[in-house]
Design a protein that fits this description.
Helix content is 35%, strand content 19%. It is built from 16 helices and 18 strands. α8 (229-241) packs antiparallel against α13 (346-360) and α15 (421-428) packs across α16 (430-443). The protein is globular and about 65 Å long. The structure holds flavin-adenine dinucleotide. Flavin-adenine dinucleotide binds at residues 25-26, 67-75, 78-79, 90, 110, 132-134, 138-139, 141-143, 145-146, 148-150, 199-200, 204-205, 325, 413-414, 450, 453. It holds the Pfam family FAD-oxidase_C. Residues 36-215 form the FAD-binding PCMH-type domain. Its cofactor is FAD.
Length: 469
Amino acid sequence: MATFPPSVQSRVVTDEDVKRTYAADAGPEPRDPARDVASDYTVVRARDVADVVAVLEHAQATGTPVVPQGARTSRVGGARATDGCIVLNVEALDAIETIDPVEGIAVVGPGVVNAALKAAAAEAGLFYGPDPASTATCTIGGNVATNAGGLCCLKYGVTADWVKALDVVLPGGEVMRTGHRTIKGVTGLDLTGLFVGSEGTLGVTTRVVTRLVPAPDPALTALATFGSLDEAVRAVVALRLDRHRPSLLEMMDRASLDAVRGFGDYGFPEESEAVLLVQSDRPGHTAEDVARYGELMTAAGAVEVAVAEDRQEADLLLQGRRVLSTAVEALGARIAEDVCVPVGRLGEYVRGAAEAARRFDVRIPVSGHAGDGNLHPSIVYPYGDAGARERAWAAFDELMQLGLSLGGTVAGEHGIGSIKRRWFAAEVGPREVERQRAIKAVFDPSGIMNPEVVFGPAGRVAGAAGPAT
Ligand SMILES: Cc1cc2nc3c(=O)[nH]c(=O)nc-3n(C[C@H](O)[C@H](O)[C@H](O)COP(=O)(O)OP(=O)(O)OC[C@H]3O[C@@H](n4cnc5c(N)ncnc54)[C@H](O)[C@@H]3O)c2cc1C
């Protein structure tokens, strides 16, 4: 176990059971079962910035890898312990320092939960846009590190569109400030943008300045069922072209509807191939918008359209979508995927996933943020079945390849983490990997920041022949 200065020693978790809970995240089991459990790692729960500084001084001096950690909801193995590392959890840095309606900003610690920032903004009549489905648990620091998206990106963009400035502790303990709190500011390179989405590979974020905007209206919902995927995709395209873009546009395919039906009765007809959920939150125009969205979906071929007339009905329509994650988890172990393809090619992707499910004998319900072309297939297999696990990972590779072949990307919003390194390299190519490694080295010359994610440890080539996990 690492020996820290006395100020930090009391933050080290000593209970082995508690330690283990900080070693895992919400990503899938690694491909290689031998790598399931990390050894010889230390967990530090920082209480303040001084703790973070002390840990990064120590880590740099001793060459110890550091895994920054928020709420551990990473879907890609980005926040899990690795052999010999320090897991540096910053959830306790959860102060909401400022909500400033005049400047339109919030200043928060990295451990502030996404939903808590939304609630604090709402109290001041303001709105913070990014809304991952994990909003109730994930932290703003984690959202910044992964450039998180969510259900409302279609209208409000991703985390990068909302972050104005950061405090980051670099390896060695220097506190660096990026960006501007002012409404405008264009001095120099956009280092805030560089840190957003860097998955803890450059430093540890200890303060975030976000943009806030005037609050929209409470959303109303329309739900449509479709007899064919092509009609559902046609509706998605029509909705994207509408002058008043929906604030949410989600899709569930037949396998997702089967999973939800197995879980409870949410009123989805057996014969549906796809369901779309659409919302408007446009101040003063929600009812008018959802009625028009309903007409657009009917024109595209929807079999049935239900339009909520009030908030309660709107919430009821969303319930089937809300239970989907739990319904899929009840089916077995899962690899949650996150490809993003051009919107017009959504149907090809969903059909390809269904074909892969048949061939590899696994279940692959596909759902997601159709309005962004961002789908989340879940590759599901029985717990403890080694053969099925292997087939599931083979299906995963095939879905990565399929996404790329359709002109998409292997990571829409969850990041690369440790599970997609090979596919990151496949998408961007070896020269780009080297360029990005060189940029990392400017901030992290010893390569100690989250070295198992994105690029992989220096010296290892993260190409097609690189390590599988
Ligand atoms: C049920 C469920 C639904 C989800 N839905 C969505 C969704 O709709 N959209 C979406 O984008 N994601 C979604 N996710 C994924 C996940 O919630 C996001 O990636 C989230 O941003 C991670 O936040 P976290 O606090 O849990 O971070 P962690 O999981 O703890 O860490 C994630 C990454 O950020 C780094 N990190 C964390 N904190 C810091 C910090 N302070 N400084 C530097 N690096 C840091 C870690 O090293 C790691 O690489 C979902 C996950 C689950 C389990």
